[in-house]
Design brief:
407 residues; alpha+beta; GMP Synthetase, Chain A, domain 3; 3 domains; four-stranded mixed beta sheet; 17 strands; flat
């Protein structure tokens, strides 16, 4: 266990091209789940200059059945895509919700996948694919998330809120943040570096003597003010270094500046590198896919373990085989922070008694067959709320049972 080290996590805004793609894909998931709670969706999105392309497989009663779209379904899909882009804030020449070209290449789910996954009289619903999923929690923040990622997300969330409220009119949708903290005895004690790069209105750049210095100072001071509001005051010191738009001009952004694809920000979506990642993306997938649902249940379990005081940090891994309902393995790592009398082996035995870890059991326990996913697709899937309510995997309703098991 190291006494002192630096650790860094990054976040990207809802206007980042990959996040635009994630939000479109999850808007499509929500659309189909609103029509059919048992819908199957695997939706990938490509975004680039004035273009959005959907591809993937679906099955949805009343929308796509027997190889045909229901009347009006294609128009509703396109309207959903355009509305999502509009809500993010793109009304630029290079990417505009109203004038962009749209291609829909969604088609029916493979019957060969369906036959191995669907529930039947002689078998439980199986996992939609093989894979490993990880969940993590840490007592570094009230949300039980790694502090570096938590602060990176919140910087950009605040900037987006100010942009949409009109209080920071020089901001445009595309942005990135990065927070480096120095840890001592596994606790964050100082922010050593803050990086924020944000798309901006014309004239607000300054690098190597370019641009309007007064406008750049306005942008710089605004960002530093946001950082001061988000990070605890004791972490910001005279030694904290700020890199605000370090390359200078950043007027061309979003899908016009760089193509976006669903599922390319999986570390931003999860724990900022503080925990392993199984490799599967979440966005664009309905909750029968264990890439998504098992990642949510492992977060839920890890968070409850830390919230119950059984450890200060917790990582949980589950593994699945396609078409098989029960997980192949359950693994727990408490990182040497376990409370007295608590062991990883005991928790591994306890977890399946608390929650049935089949795909259907997970969805039932967390209530996942609902259109709740668009809100997950920016600023992380964990440690946050959407529309004022915590995501179901952020509940801590197992703590009493966990405490009782080790009383």
């Amino acid at each position: 266990m190291r006494n002192s080290f630096l650790f860094t996590s990054e976040s990207v805004s809802e206007g980042h091209p990959d996040k635009v793609s994630d939000q479109i894909s999850d808007s499509i998931v929500d659309l189909f789940l609103s029509k059919d709670p048992e819908a199957r969706v695997a939706c990938e999105t490509l975004t680039t200059t004035q273009l959005v392309v959907l591809a993937g497989e679906i099955r949805c009663k009343g929308v796509y059945e027997n190889g045909a779209w229901a009347p009006g379904a294609l128009d509703e899909i396109e309207a959903t895509v355009r509305r999502t882009v509009k809500e993010i804030g793109y009304e630029q020449d290079g990417f505009h919700w109203e004038t962009l070209r749209f291609e829909n290449n969604l088609h029916g789910q493979s019957a060969h996948i369906a036959q191995g996954v669907d529930e039947a009289a002689d078998k439980d619903e199986g996992a939609g694919d093989q894979g490993i999923m990880f969940g993590y929690a840490s007592d570094e923040t009230p949300d039980l998330m790694p502090a570096t990622l938590d602060y990176s997300h919140k910087i950009l969330e605040r900037m987006a809120a100010d942009r949409k409220a009109g209080t920071a009119p020089f901001l445009e949708p595309d942005a990135k943040s990065q927070v480096t903290l120095r840890y001592a005895n596994e606790r964050p004690v100082e922010a050593t570096a803050i990086v924020v790069s944000t798309q901006h209105a014309p004239g607000y750049y300054f690098h190597g003597g370019e641009g309007d210095e007064a406008k750049y100072a306005e942008l710089r001071d605004y960002v530093k003010g946001v950082v001061a509001d988000v990070l605890p005051a004791e972490l910001l010191t005279a030694n904290t270094v700020y890199h605000i738009n370090p390359t200078g001009r950043f007027e061309i952004g979003g899908p016009d500046g760089d193509a976006g694809l669903t599922g390319r920000k999986i570390i931003v979506d999860t724990y900022g590198g503080a925990s392993p990642h199984g490799g599967g993306a979440f966005s664009g997938k309905d909750p029968t896919k264990v890439d998504r649902s098992a990642a949510y249940i492992t977060r839920y379990l890890a968070k409850n373990i830390v919230a119950a005081g059984l450890s200060r940090r917790c990582t949980i891994q589950l593994a699945y085989a396609i078409g098989v309902a029960e997980p192949l393995s359950v693994y727990v790592d408490l990182h040497g922070t376990a409370a007295e009398g608590v062991t990883e082996a005991a928790i591994e035995q306890l977890i399946p008694q608390l929650v049935r870890l089949t795909p259907k059991g997970i969805r039932t326990h967390l209530g996942l067959n609902k259109p709740i996913y668009r809100e997950t697709a920016a600023y992380g899937h964990f440690g946050r709320q959407a529309n004022g309510d915590a995501f179901p995997w952020e509940r801590t309703d197992l703590t009493d049972k966990l405490k009782a098991a080790f009383a």
